[in-house]
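task queued by scheduler; priority normal; single chain, no ligands, no partner chains; default sampling; output format set to structure tokens
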Amino acid sequence: MNIILIGMRGAGKTNVARRLAFLTKRPVMSSDTLIEYENGGQSIAKFIATKDDSWRAFRDLEYRVIKKISKMDGLIVDCGGGVIVDLDADGNEVYSKRKVGALKKSGTIVWLKGDIKRLVEKVKNKPERPSLSDLKSAEEIMNHRLDFYQKAADVVIDIEGKKRQDMADELFERFKDRL
């Protein structure tokens, strides 16, 4: 069984995953790091900036990586913020049955849920995080994704006011009987 962390940009998925890996003695797999590896080491921001139909190409690459991760067992999986979305024919974000389905088959999905305004403010103007849209604000996109996170989640952890170590400890306690 994998423990799979999802959530918005800035929710602390990577940090919590590393701390949880230390507690559980399990390896961490980052979907974004594996995407960069699969793309010859090119950053996601550069991938988005240089590809035609870049977000669609990225979501397809992300799916291929998620399929690979989902074939492994005993991992702490740190997913990118948009793992729960795909794009429809018009380029609008829709719930990703294919990616979430693959993840659910391999483990338990934990949503690190936080305040959208705070998270958007935390990650704005960071060059390693490509713009999600030229037409919508990050806050609009995150609000649109809320139902997708809720639908995907097996477990929800409210991150507000909590330290990363406290979240990792909470998850360890929740899963220690299944480890």
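post-processing summary
- The first helix runs from residue 13 to 24.
- Helices lie at 13-24, 31-38, 44-50, 54-70, 97-106, 116-123, 138-152, 164-175.
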